[in-house]
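Q: Could you predict the 3D structure of Granulocyte colony-stimulating factor?
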Amino acid sequence: MSPEPALSPALQLLLWHSALWTVQEATPLGPASSLPQSFLLKCLEQVRKIQGDGAALQEKLTGCLSQLHSGLFLYQGLLQALEGISPELGPTLDTLQLDVADFATTIWQQMEELGMAPALQPTQGAMPAFASAFQRRAGGILVASHLQSFLELAYRVLRHLAQP
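A: Sure. Here are the predicted structure tokens for Granulocyte colony-stimulating factor:
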């Protein structure tokens, strides 16, 4: 059995926040008439600031994961357009397609678990049609090069999110 993938600290924070919020909603608050008004106002101000910071963090995470998923979804289509590139590259292309699809699915599932996924998954737009073997090979070089750059950027972003 493979170990569960580790969540970044930012994602863990969002999950903990969700769990604590549920508990907090179930906890009745007693009368606060004995607390000084200035203290209550300061607490309200701090709560608003923290809520704003949390919303900003969630917005950034949503944007990051959404862009990552969209990019992977685009490359899924581009890789499908390369089918038939050559018999010797077929198995490698198939493996790459599966890996990209699995990664996109993982990102989408995480977005759903965090309540950050859009209502509908995106649909694939028109992809290039490579009419000749030369076009498929030239397209393959371009797609592979751009996919590599995209994955390097994705790696840096995810590594940054994983830092404490």
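Q: Anything worth pointing out?
A: Residues 6 and 97 are 24 Å apart (CA to CA).
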